[in-house]
Write a structure and sequence with these properties.
There is one protein chain. Helix 12 runs antiparallel to helix 13 and helix 12 crosses helix 15. It is globular, with a radius of gyration of 22 Å. The longest helix is centred in the middle third of the chain and has 22 residues. The chain folds into two domains: 266 residues, no CATH class; 217 residues, Gamma-glutamyltranspeptidase, large (L) subunit, C-terminal domain (Serum Albumin, Chain A, Domain 1). The protein contains 18 helices and 18 strands. It is an alpha+beta fold. Strands 6-3-2-10-9-1-18 form a seven-stranded antiparallel beta sheet, with helices on one face. A six-stranded antiparallel beta sheet has the order 7-8-11-12-16-17. Strands 13-14-15 form a three-stranded mixed beta sheet. Bound molecules: 6-diazenyl-5-OXO-L-norleucine. 6-diazenyl-5-OXO-L-norleucine binds next to loops.
Length: 568
């Protein structure tokens, strides 16, 4: 099968790249909107819009604020992808602020030299788990190149919140439940997040003056405010004192990469999404293009689910085989996203029977919380879709004293040994093996969908499930869902291996479930829901705008609702 895939790929090697998005004259909506996972962060973005900032300034504001008020999900010690579209000239931009492996990282660094087996928990907890942060560089880059107000102005609401206090909420506490012991074991984390060693009460006021200081340094000195000087020294000394391998050179060498977004046609729509080192855009393109060949609206619910599951199975299989950091491995993006390749895969789908995954050989990855996504459209029509992360809840649970932020555990997104699963059952391959300075493969999929009627900006956290959620989000928007409906949709996921359809509790009726089982699918009802999708929609006919925040987490308050926030 692998040989067949390679053969199919090489047949299309000379075909042109996917269509480019080229319609700058879009007009503008009648207002701006932000959908984020936390009301305090949405408010920070709204404040910057009100003070004359554009969507990109607001994205910097929301990103920095989420790092403060949702420390379990993302922050200055992590990374993220900023997908932007500038209204004035239609330019689409992908700022890759993904973390990089330290330069002293080695392929086998997480294996016991005596046994060749993985050393437990090292990719998850403590100093070796952390890759070199990219988010601070992304904030500086986006502000400098695309913002209208100064970085200091974009960061001001978060600096104020860090100094005066932010409110600890339900999601902060729930995620802390998973990570409390390891947070308590780190003096910096315990001092910053725990109250007498315990999870703070919901609604508790949390202060973080160190976070404010780091943001001030960024505002004053730009990139060097983080990657050189006091913060860089503290980070390197702190990580090394704990047994880590970071050097000043790692920080000095960190740069964001501006990559060309992945752009493809999906029926009458243009989709703009994340290129590698995200695997999400490629899998999204493959899945939607496979489905484009079916007369979708005429299919029954069971048939639509069957076809979606089969398309996902095939796209996730290719993800496992081909995807990695494009600066280190050759990822055949143009080939994988070519409609003709999708046609080949589509032909292998049996409309009346599930294809067992072991008939499609390869390997796969799965991932779990935490991460965050936000979507912004401003009143000029600028678009921003941003997904950012520290990987698992509260990252590696280390706060270097004086910095005010957690380090990530993104090293766990690498495959530490071919075929050996990581903490969440992931297995990987050579394309995603550890190399010095390499970016670990991501599933984060910030996405924009454009057609004659509407423009949608969407994305979500959820590890490997990000991709299936974005697929589902796009398909539901296709069929006329509101922003909130698209975010709220009950989720159905398949990722090739394990060969099962995992569903949220109550996602399928008994009848639909039985129908899928009759086609040969194994259905697994998960104990809990997943994801935290944030959608903003602009209706082109009347300029109206809609924001939908995932109702699964009700971590909202003043300034944002489960419908998101609209600014007029
Ligand atoms: O980059 C990635 O794909 C992962 N680090 C994201 C993890 C994630 O989304 C977990 N969120 N719930």
């Amino acid at each position: 099968m692998i040989r067949r895939v390679v053969l199919i790929l090489s047949l299309f090697i000379a075909l042109p790249l996917a269509a480019r998005e080229a319609t700058p004259e879009w007009g503008h909506p009648d207002s701006a909107a932000i959908a984020s996972a936390n009301a305090q962060a949405t408010d920070a973005g709204l404040e910057v819009l009100r003070r004359g900032g554009n969507a990109f300034d607001a994205a910097v504001a929301v990103s920095a604020a989420l790092g403060l008020v949702e420390p379990e999900s993302s922050g200055l010690g992590g990374g993220g992808f900023f997908l932007l579209r500038r209204a004035s000239d239609g330019k689409v931009i992908f700022v890759d602020g993904r973390e990089r492996a330290p330069l002293a990282a080695t392929r086998d660094m997480f294996l016991d030299p005596a046994t060749g087996e993985p050393k437990p928990l090292q990719t998850v907890d403590g100093p070796l788990a952390a890759a070199i942060p990219g988010l601070p560089a992304a904030l500086v880059h986006v502000s400098k190149n695309y913002g209208r107000v100064s970085l200091a102005d974009a960061l001001a609401p978060t600096i104020r919140m860090a100094e005066r206090g932010w409110r600890f909420g339900e999601k902060n506490a729930a995620m802390m439940g998973w990570r409390k012991a390891v947070l308590a074991a780190d003096a910096g984390s315990a001092a910053l997040f725990l109250k007498n060693g315990e999870t703070p009460e919901q609604g508790a006021r949390m202060r973080n003056p160190d976070y404010a200081r780091v943001l001030r340094l960024l505002a004053e000195k730009g990139h060097d405010g983080f990657y050189a000087g006091d913060i860089a020294t503290r980070l390197v000394e702190g990580v090394r004192a704990a047994g880590g391998i970071w050097t000043q050179e790692d920080l000095a060498a960190y740069r964001v990469v501006e990559r060309e977004p992945l752009v493809f046609r999906h029926g009458v729509r243009t989709v703009i999404t994340a290129p590698p080192p995200s695997s999400g855009g490629v899998a999204l393109a493959q899945t939607l293009q496979m489905l484009d060949g079916f007369d979708w609206s005429k299919q029954s619910e069971i048939q639509q689910l069957h076809l979606r599951i089969e398309a996902m199975r095939r796209a996730y299989r290719d993800r496992a085989i081909f995807l990695g950091d494009p600066d280190f491995v050759e990822v055949p993006v143009a080939l994988l996203t070519n409609p003709a390749y999708a046609a080949g895969l589509r032909a292998s789908i049996n409309p009346v029977r599930a294809t067992p995954s072991d008939m499609l050989p390869g390997i796969t990855k799965t991932e779990r919380p935490d991460t965050t996504h936000f979507s912004i459209i401003d009143a000029e029509g600028n678009l921003a879709a941003v997904t950012q992360t520290v990987n698992l809840p509260y990252g590696n649970a280390m706060v270097i004293p004086g910095t005010g932020f957690l380090l990530n555990n993104e090293m766990d997104d690498f495959s530490i040994k071919p075929g050996v699963p990581n903490a969440f059952g992931l297995v990987g391959d050579d394309a995603n093996a550890i190399e010095p300075g390499k970016r670990p493969l991501s599933s984060m999929t910030p996405t924009m969908v454009i057609d004659a009627d509407k423009i949608a900006v969407l994305g979500t956290p959820g590890g490997s499930r990000i991709i299936s959620m974005v697929i589902q989000g796009v398909l539901s928007l296709d069929s006329g869902a509101t922003a909130l409906q698209a975010a709220a949709q009950p989720r159905v996921h398949h990722q090739y291996l394990p060969d099962e359809v995992s569903i949220e509790p109550g996602a399928l009726s008994d009848e639909t479930r039985a129908g899928l089982e009759a086609l040969g699918h194994t259905i697994k009802v998960e104990p809990r829901t997943w994801g935290n999708m944030q959608v903003v929609l602009w209706h082109r006919a009347d300029g109206s705008i809609e924001a939908g925040a995932d109702p699964r987490w009700k971590n909202v308050g003043k300034g944002a609702t489960t419908e998101g926030s609209i600014f007029r």
